[in-house]
Amino acid sequence: MRKIYNIQIDKVKPTVQAVLEAQGIPHSKLSEERLINLAKQAIAIYREFAIPIGIVMEISKKDFANIFVGEGKNDGESPVKPIYESSDELALFAVTIDENICAEISRLFKSNDFALGSMLDSAASEGTEMAAQIIENIYRKHLSKIGLMNQKNGTLRLSPGYCGWHIGAQRKLFQHLKPEDIGITLNDSFLMQPLKSISGVIILGQKEIYEFDDTFSFCRDCATHSCKERIKAVFNG
Amino acid sequence: MNIVQELSEQLQQGNPKNVAELTQQAINAKINIKTILDKGLIAGMTVVGEKFKAHEIFLPDVLLAAKAMYAGMDLLKPHLIKEGIPAIGKVVIGTVQGDLHDIGKNLVAIMLKGAGFEVIDLGNDVSPQKFLDTAVKENAEVIGMSALLTTTMPVMKKVIDLARERNLHGRKKFIVGGAPLSSEYAKEIGADAYCFDGMSTVETVKRFMGIS
Question: pLDDT by residue (tens digit) across A51-93?
């Protein structure tokens, strides 16, 4: 299975609250009208310029092992390896919301509309995350259809550059998935263009395989520790 | 409240139209250009910066104030040049070679300009040579480098190593910033400081230049 999906923009439209929170505004201060209007304006521009699209492709554990190793620069210990080795199914994925939106963010900054440009950047980042979630949901539906999803397992997305998985793995991931077909390219620093793109692997596995302590050396530098919440969400809906 | 105080107030409110009007009024009233700049625009941005640091206002509020500041600066700039009034310091800034993320760098540049610095923004994907050549050519005191990728962080070291080769290390101050960076990394590569955000960059650059 290798499929490309055009995603409806309204399915990946971030909320005002999500945009304001991404701007560092605490929950208790989300009611200021001026900022709400700015966020609404940013979301309207996002809706006008974003063209969300994604690709997903099943991959065997053997092939993924080669991608995971990448250029041999992974951390000595990483939770990604035991997770994928114990998984039931794997799929590579990539999503983007197109270059247009990045150009519009730059244009806003150049015309001194810094606040709107910054809000649009947050809206675009949120939208890209939502697009990745849509692709994961599509893959989950596919797994359900073929009878592989059940009460005891769940899917999780992981990306090169996180959790000890070196970003250099992007090269092999791109060679295998070919996200150029949806307009994503990779530069020499393993940076995806358009910037608002996400790539990685969707892992299907039993709950137990995702259990690990976030005490790896790279966890110290992690600002969010969102892995725990994400894993919890997989099994608590 | 006089024009200059009103100017500062309107800037804090993030009202570019009023700031432009008041700046023009102040110029027409022959108020000293440096007074308009220091007591009006920069004073307003300083209050905004302090409120941001105290979590009384948030990033969009700061950026709205910055837009208002620029509206005033556009009118003041020809007069500042004509009267030969220099900026309080000069900073060369850019995202390092191989990296195209520039939102964080842009925000830092906005904050520095708001504090009265001249900022030469080289954009993104900037080579070590270009950082140093520009800093020398423009006689900038500080070089600010940004990176969002672990794979592009080493370019910062290349800039500093090249500065050593060119005998510029110690004569220019080097600041690094970006999500994967840390004070430890800054120290390890020989940078003078790691800055977490725009406000901390302004404070650090002021400290380097002995500005209170």
Answer: 999 999 999 999 999 999 999 999 888 889 999 999 999 999 9
- Six-digit token pair at B99? 């990296």
pTM of the model as a whole: 0.91
Quote the ipTM score.
0.88
Backbone angles phi, psi at B101, to 5 degrees: -75, 125
Place of tokens 């620029």: B70
Is B58 near chain A, with CB under 8 Å? yes
Name chain B contacts of A121, Cβ cutoff 8 Å. Answer: 103
Taking the Cβ of residue B193 and every Cβ of chain A, the question of whether any pair is shorter than 8 Å is answered with no
Q: Does B150 touch chain A (CB under 8 A)?
A: yes
Residues of B in contact with A106 (CB under 8 A): 102
